[in-house]
Please model this.
Amino acid sequence: MKRQHIDTGVKFSFSVIALFSITALSLIMVFLFKEGLPIFEQISIKEFILGKYWYPTDDPADFGILPLILGSLAVTLLSGVMAIPLGVMTAIYLAEIAPNRVTECIKPIVELMASMPSVVIGFFGMVVVAPFIQKTFNIPVGLNLFNAALMLAFMAVPTICTISEDAIFSVPGALKEASFALGATHFETIFKVIIPASLSGICTAVILGLSRAVGETMVVLMAAGGAAMIPGSIFDPVRPLPASIAAEMAEAPFGGEHYHALFAIGIVLFIFTFLFNLMADFISHRFRQVGEASL
Amino acid sequence: MEKRFHVLLMFSISLIVASSQLFAGELVIKGSTTVLPIAQKAAEAYMAEHTDVKISLSGGGSGNGIKAIIDGTADIGNASRFIKQKEVTLAGTRGVYPVPFRVALDAIVPVVNAENSVKNLTMAQLKDIYLGNIKDWKEVGGTPGTIVVISRDSSSGTFGVWKDLVMKKKRVIPNALTVPSNGGVVQAVANTPGAIGYIGLGYITKKIKAVDVDGVVGSEENTLNGSFPISRGLFMFTKGWPKGETMGFISFILSRKGQKLVKEAGSIPLF
Model:
């Protein structure tokens, strides 16, 4: 009798705790939409998404976020181009090629990189990398799309590497042994057996890494230059969505148009990261390697 | 039952009355981050003199400072600009009459990279640079090179003054870099050879070079005698003509002692 009571108690308290965190999160979401949607009483969704000019404090104001959306996408894509090969190849090296002792050394370092505060990376980009890029490429300004993407790649590599490494490591040993038994070289085994077998895990890793890059605020605020223009080259300054919110929220009058517009940017950002995570979830379920026979 | 309810009601009313008396000496100050250092210095000194007064300070920007006065959530609203027509109208509909007090002056100085040879720019040239009509330093007498325009975020008070006085309400080109703080402008200008930016007089360092405007050096003296064209007043707004502690605090800031603190806080005193 008493043990049953304890059991019910534990069950109950755990559901309350779980419910609490879910409620808190959904309330934040409700708040986001409640504060963001009123802007669409002033302008249409089309004007907001496709408008080319962001002059929120002018009279009359312009609330077009197309330059901000393109800035965010450009920075994320470019950082992906840099981070995906690096992250995945490091993962392959760690899981398959490196001797155990090297793995034990490098893996904690990569994980440590993931815990580097983003403000430190942003500061590094602003103070060290920006003058370097500006001098090396002989361009007018070092705070630009390329700089921000490079810094974001720094942040995405550890995420991509750690999750991919886990996926590669968990490929059943029998697959690898079978491949060797058929006379395949180590290289052939990696590219024809191990990577296809762990592809869903690698894709999840990539998407999670990129979704971190989309939402990252401090780095783009400090290193991207903050110009609300549609980028024409990788050396143009850009103003991604999170940077706009962070830079302007403090001074936007509470309850005004600008305030609502910033929350609406938050909604757009939320939809972006939500889609990314949905995609990661879908891929990891759809292409999951079940058993060893389906290859 | 009913009697008990009455007792409870009386008790809570007396509690509310008592608590409002207890905090009679409380001042709430909100608004511009530019005025914040001044308010902070003055508040510390004022509280040291009047131990029964408690002052709570917070930033939030000029817009929020004036809004707090209109909403009645603050006794003093700081602003690094004058009140806008929109805000006057809003205050009118709420039956509030905001009273401005100019407590200090501030000058905004254009700055360029230390290696730049340009010494003087006219107001018209500054405007054309920020409109994107002048794109190369050779057009204003410097060594050829692309001008990198650095501006502040559109909600900053410094940007607001720059926009009113230099841009004459025209828009800064979209490809201008925006930086979130005065310190950020200094950092960006110091690292970029072709850059131009603008900062408060108190933020000028040796890493960057201040440019004269219409042949006038941006200095405290030239701001006070009115010859430097890009200067602004820093304001404290009250709801109606101030009374009690609010009056006391405003008079303190405007006293000789208070103005000395203004100078210590890095702004330009009125006298």
